[in-house]
Amino acid sequence: MKQFNQDSHLSKMRKHNGGMSKISAALSRTFSFRNIAVVFLIVYFVIFLAYPIYKAFAGSFHEWNPLVGTYNWVGLDNFKQILVDKLFWKSIANTAIFTFVSVVFRVILGIGFAMLLSSKLVKCKDTLRGLFYMPTITPLVAVSFVWMWMFDPQFGMIDRVTGLNINWLHSSTWAMPAIIIMTIWKDF
Known about the structure:
This protein is mostly helical.
């Protein structure tokens, strides 16, 4: 008798919900929302990631002149040309140096400060943790302007404090160290 009452109760719920129980109705709403969300994510992925990558890859086999509007097939000539270009190899070397130095210093400084903050010798740990986290949450545009001011040859704080008269950001020798310093501070 008890089984019969449960079955009749379920049948009443199904009739009320258009043939579905409360659980299946909730699940169908959840699945439909998930499907819609996934569709939007796929569309976003295709428009802003897959299509630009495809166009860049397809464009690498063409010679394109936007002023004239020509788009001529050249095959692998662009790749052959770039492999003999000295500027390309210099940019690869600069990227490798920048990456290596930045990563090594970030790891060393990060581990060093983490060990320092976890030691019992340091007081005001919460304040220092907040100060160390500030570069991470500061917008990159604001950081760039502050560092441009600090590296300025006339009014820059670094030249005034050190007494060096270096044109940091306009020198081929000092531009990379200046950007590495800023990157290490920002991503520290």
